[in-house]
Design goal:
Multidrug-efflux Transporter Regulator, Chain: A, Domain 2; 3-stranded antiparallel β-sheet; 4 helices; alpha+beta; single chain; globular
């Protein structure tokens, strides 16, 4: 992807993919869980959540989600 596009559109470079912040909806799709489950896991500390913006929207680091996905897969 063109560098100017990434800067203008807020895209991520290849080295930044692991640091990408995911929304509640994106994480729920990846883990196949309900948003209330994800919020509960965040409150219990099972997954680290970050609050951004004035509304306190939740975001999750892609590496943390991947680790949780692997953990869930290994426990099944």
């Amino acid at each position: 992807m063109h560098q100017a596009y990434r800067k203008r559109r807020g895209g991520f470079g290849e080295s930044e993919v692991s640091k990408r912040m995911l929304t509640v909806g994106e994480v729920c799709q990846l883990l196949n869980i309900h948003s209330n489950t994800l919020r509960r896991w965040g409150a219990k500390g099972l997954i680290k959540e970050y609050r951004i913006g004035p509304g306190g929207q939740r975001r999750y680091v892609a590496d943390d989600v991947l680790a949780l996905l692997v953990e869930r897969h290994n426990s099944e």
